[in-house]
UniProtKB/TrEMBL annotation:
<feature type="repeat" description="TPR">
    <location>
        <begin position="220"/>
        <end position="253"/>
    </location>
</feature>
<dbReference type="Pfam" id="PF14559">
    <property type="entry name" value="TPR_19"/>
</dbReference>
<dbReference type="Pfam" id="PF00515">
    <property type="entry name" value="TPR_1"/>
</dbReference>
<dbReference type="InterPro" id="IPR011990">
    <property type="entry name" value="TPR-like_helical_dom_sf"/>
</dbReference>
<feature type="repeat" description="TPR">
    <location>
        <begin position="288"/>
        <end position="321"/>
    </location>
</feature>
<keyword id="KW-0802">TPR repeat</keyword>
<protein>
    <submittedName>
        <fullName>Tetratricopeptide repeat protein</fullName>
    </submittedName>
</protein>
<dbReference type="InterPro" id="IPR019734">
    <property type="entry name" value="TPR_rpt"/>
</dbReference>
<dbReference type="GO" id="GO:0000030">
    <property type="term" value="F:mannosyltransferase activity"/>
</dbReference>
<dbReference type="GO" id="GO:0035269">
    <property type="term" value="P:protein O-linked glycosylation via mannose"/>
</dbReference>
<dbReference type="Pfam" id="PF13432">
    <property type="entry name" value="TPR_16"/>
</dbReference>
<dbReference type="Pfam" id="PF13174">
    <property type="entry name" value="TPR_6"/>
</dbReference>
């Protein structure tokens, strides 16, 4: 009786195995047709008894499962992409290395493209979720963790962003990437492309001047963001400690010193900011951006004259710096407020009238001092509406009606 029961059991297992194989084959056919929902259903039926088939059918099962859950790669949920990645990894373990690798690449591409779409539509939370999933699937691709943290900053989820940034810091992430550049002979423009493609195009003569260009490191930015999150949470001591720790590892990193200066600026300690920035200038005296940034903070603490000097120094190094000219004009025009306050406080006496006229002349001199900077901005950037509007108002104040009305017409869309 026992032997008979065993024979029946073995026969049952054979029938189950045959059914499993059929469902797996049918799932493969459904995948080939693009009927992914049908394939999922067939695979779900086959999965409970998957142990009854050999490894060849198991590897097919996982490949089909990966393909079914990946689908076309468009509008696929993160959960389905996770399922697809896990299936491809199991297929890889069963010997399907090449096809599984192609499937995993498809999952990653789908996640990244979907994250880009989310970013473009300002769905930063969705982008962060997908990029973090990409990192979990491919822990060697730490850049996904970096971009996930960046997207979380945009959502205000600082606590999780801080965890990601601290993980990147502990991993020693630098974010340095190599960009493969060549000049298109037909257009004269630089283009970036994969190295193998760039090298081939140079060999054909369609591209010239190949160059390998490394991106700036991101570790200073990470240290800054860790500090800024601590500041946002009211943890100034933790922010300073995080920055000091980063400086120990990178004592000569100018970008890190700039991040430290920015940290103190955010804390409201503008004098500390200024001291650090001046120290950076000693190391990098030909950096126009540093002089410009010092001009901004110096203006904010009320030292307009010194701010103008910093902006002028920035322009000596980089004459095309439009914002420096605009800010010089703003710093000069800021002197007007005190004059207007005095003018409004005067009465109607002869002495007050005389004083009023003197102040009015001083006001005109302020306008005349600012005007060349604004006119230069318009010369270099004719569509700069801030410069046009401010210059137009100055022309009206100086009685230059024709010039003012010409600018008014330009603002209104005229020629």
């Amino acid at each position: 009786m026992k032997r008979k029961f065993l024979t029946i059991a073995l026969s049952f297992l054979t029938v189950v195995a045959i059914a499993q194989k059929k469902e797996i084959r049918d799932a493969g056919k459904a995948v080939d047709k693009g009927s992914y929902a049908e394939a999922k259903s067939l695979l779900q039926q086959a999965e409970p008894n998957l142990s009854s088939v050999n490894d060849r059918f198991k590897s097919d099962f996982y490949l089909y499962k990966g393909k079914a859950y990946l689908g076309t790669g468009e509008n696929v949920s993160v959960e389905d992409l996770r399922t697809a990645a896990q299936a491809f990894k199991q297929a890889e373990q069963l010997g399907e290395e090449q096809e599984a690798a192609e499937g995993l690449s498809g999952v990653t591409n789908a996640l990244v493209q979907s994250a880009i779409n989310d970013q473009n539509s300002e769905n930063y939370k969705g982008a962060a979720e997908k990029l973090y999933a990409g990192y979990q699937m491919n822990p060697q691709d730490t850049v996904y963790l970096y971009y996930a943290a960046s997207n979380l900053i945009n959502t205000g989820e600082y606590e999780t962003a801080l965890e990601y940034y601290e993980e990147l810091r502990d991993l020693g992430f630098t974010g340095i990437e190599t960009e493969y550049i060549a000049v298109n002979k037909a257009t004269g423009e630089e283009e970036s492309m994969p190295q193998s493609q760039r090298d081939l195009m140079v060999k054909t003569g369609e591209y010239i001047n190949p160059e390998d260009r490394k991106s700036p490191p991101k570790n200073a930015e990470i240290a800054k963001n860790i500090a800024l999150i601590h500041i946002a949470q009211g943890n100034d001591d933790e922010a300073i400690a995080a920055m000091e720790e980063a400086k120990k590892a990178n004592p000569d990193d100018i970008s890190l010193l700039q991040s430290e200066a920015d940290m103190y600026y955010r804390m409201g300690d503008k004098e500390k900011y200024k001291t650090i920035m001046e120290g950076i200038l000693e190391r990098d005296p030909n950096n126009a951006t540093l002089y410009y940034n010092l001009g901004v903070t110096t203006f904010e603490v009320g030292d307009n004259e010194q701010a103008v000097e910093y902006y002028k120094k920035a322009l000596e190094i980089d004459p095309s710096m439009t914002d420096a000219r605009l800010n010089i004009a703003a710093a000069i025009l800021a002197k007007e407020a005190a004059l207007v306050e005095q003018m409004n406080s005067l009465g109607m006496s002869k002495a007050d009238t005389k004083k009023y006229d003197e102040l009015a002349e001083q006001r005109k001199e302020i306008y005349k001092e600012a005007l060349p900077y604004l006119e230069k901005v318009m010369e270099n950037n004719p569509e700069n509406t801030d410069a046009i509007r401010t210059t137009m108002n100055i022309y009206y104040q100086l009685g230059e009606e024709d010039k003012a009305e010409a600018l008014q017409q330009k603002l209104n869309g005229g020629n």
